[in-house]
Amino acid sequence: MMTRKALSKRTRFEVFKRDHFTCQYCGKQPPDVVLVIDHITPVCEGGTSDAENLMTACETCNQGKAGIPLSQVPVRPDADLLYLEAQQEAAELRRYQAAKAERDAALTSVIESLQGTWYAYLPEGFDWGPADHLLRSMLDKYSPEIVEVGIIATARAIQTQHVSGHGSGWVKYAWGVMRHTAEEAEEAG
């Protein structure tokens, strides 16, 4: 059995300083706790009293650990690593918010453009057009180019009275044009 060598005050201070005067198990610091020096590999297991085998612990954690090797004791999470992980997550959330705001602004612009296209193909004084929510659902399913083809074809069909501008007939017509255009594009591609 190996005998425990008394540690010098200097060695204790250097280990405390290296470990930022913080228990490496629970993260507590004085004055909330009394710090002691703990052997990473216990002396009873052949551990030495060299600085590389020493770490800072509070009395409670050190007594609870007893002669158990460090590899079997959960070490407190690295505070710097946790901070960096939180900062990374915050940066990713800010990037998502910025991208979403940019996407929402672009979507609003596309919807306004499609509504302008609608009115450009109908007689002056025509006072209604596809609602924002309808255009959003069309854009969820089809590209803006295909939605534009559907809007133009439907506006022309209303102008020539091929399709009624009342009721839901024009909506079904627009969806049909978009579906047909998408199918043609897929066959050609």
How would you concisely characterize the structure shown here?
With 189 residues, the chain is mainly alpha-helical. The protein is built from 6 helices and 2 strands.
Secondary structure elements and their pairing?
Elements: H1 9-18, E1 35-39, E2 54-58, H2 59-65, H3 79-120, H4 132-141, H5 144-159, H6 169-188
Antiparallel strand pairs: 1-2
Helix pairs in contact: 3-5, 5-6
Give structural attributes:
56% helix; 2 domains; mainly alpha; two-stranded antiparallel ribbon; DNA Binding (I), subunit A; 6 helices; 189 residues
Q: Could you name the ranges where pLDDT drops below 50 across 5 or more consecutive residues?
A: none
What is the terminal-to-terminal distance?
80 Å
Determine the number of helices (DSSP H or I, runs of at least 4 residues): 6
* Percent of residues in beta strands: 5-15%
Q: Shape, please? A: rod-shaped
Number of domains: 2
Which structural category fits the helices and strands?
A: mainly alpha
The helical percent reads 55-70%
Question: Which strand order does the major sheet show?
Answer: 1-2
SSE string, helix = H, strand = E?
HEEHHHHH
Mean pLDDT: 87
Sketch the major β-sheet: 2 strands, antiparallel
- The total of beta strands comes to 2
What is the gyration radius calculated from CA atoms? 36 Å
